[in-house]
Design brief:
It is a single chain. By secondary structure, the chain is of the alpha/beta class. The chain folds into 2 domains: 7-132, Conserved hypothetical protein from pyrococcus furiosus pfu- 392566-001, ParB domain (Alpha-Beta Complex); 134-193, Ubiquitin-associated (UBA) domain (Helicase, Ruva Protein, domain 3, Orthogonal Bundle), CATH 1.10.8. The chain contains 8 helices and 6 strands; from the N terminus they run ββααββαβαβαααα. The relative contact order is 0.16. The strands form 2 sheets. Strands 1-5-3-4 form a 4-stranded mixed β-sheet. It has a two-stranded parallel ribbon with strand order 2-6.
Length: 205
């Protein structure tokens, strides 16, 4: 995927448009906690080193293609502006063509909190309206603990979330997160997960 030299500028966080339907609110809560640990100029330094990549879409709106959790955390913390990097300009396309291009390039993920594919019109227009998918939180924490490696494959953590969704009960994820995380780690190292991006399970000769 070719990405041109980014155009960097600050925008209102609440003006950003999502390209997915869900986030993991457990992960959002962790990012909110880390944001509160920064004081004064450290907040500005953090924002300067965490640019939110966006696509410039119809009506010159900015569509987020990564860092949805960060955007939601900043919004919930009352941070009004964030620095963005415009990686592609598709503002000349009509709405229907725009979403088809995003889908074709792996720049959107129209799957709901149950892992079911929906229409592009079901993707919320505001970061504040993203729904919680606890399996996405589980997949994010699993990666941070070394369950799998970070990959450049778009929305790779959603693939892991879907893998876990089919093997672990939702109530267990919601009510016993740490215990379920241990089970997720064992699953992540199993041969069943070998098809997933970033898999780093045991290799046998």
């Amino acid at each position: 995927m070719h990405v041109r030299e980014p155009i960097i500028k600050p925008v209102q966080v609440d003006s950003l448009r999502p390209t997915q339907m869900t986030v993991g609110m457990h992960e959002v809560a962790e990012k909110r906690k880390r944001w509160r640990e920064h004081k004064g100029k450290r907040k500005d330094e953090f924002l300067g080193s965490h640019l939110v990549p966006v696509i410039l879409g119809p009506k010159d709106r900015h569509y987020v293609i990564d860092h949805h959790h960060l955007a939601r955390a900043l919004l919930d913390e009352g941070q009004d502006r964030v620095a963005i990097a415009v990686v592609a300009d598709l503002h000349a396309l009509d709405r229907e063509a725009f979403w088809v291009v995003l889908d074709n390039r792996g720049w959107c993920h129209p799957y709901d909190h149950n892992g079911v594919r929906c229409g592009f019109s079901d993707i919320p227009e505001k970061i504040a309206d993203l729904r919680d998918d606890p399996y996405r939180s589980l997949a994010g924490e699993l990666r941070r603990l070394g369950g799998y490696s970070k990959e450049t494959v778009p929305f790779s953590e959603f693939l892991w979330a879907d893998f876990l969704r089919r093997r672990l009960k939702r109530k267990a994820v919601e009510n016993a997160f740490e215990e379920t995380l241990e089970k997720a780690m064992r699953l992540a190292k199993s041969p069943d997960a070998a098809y997933l991006p970033g898999w780093c399970g045991p290799v046998t000769d």
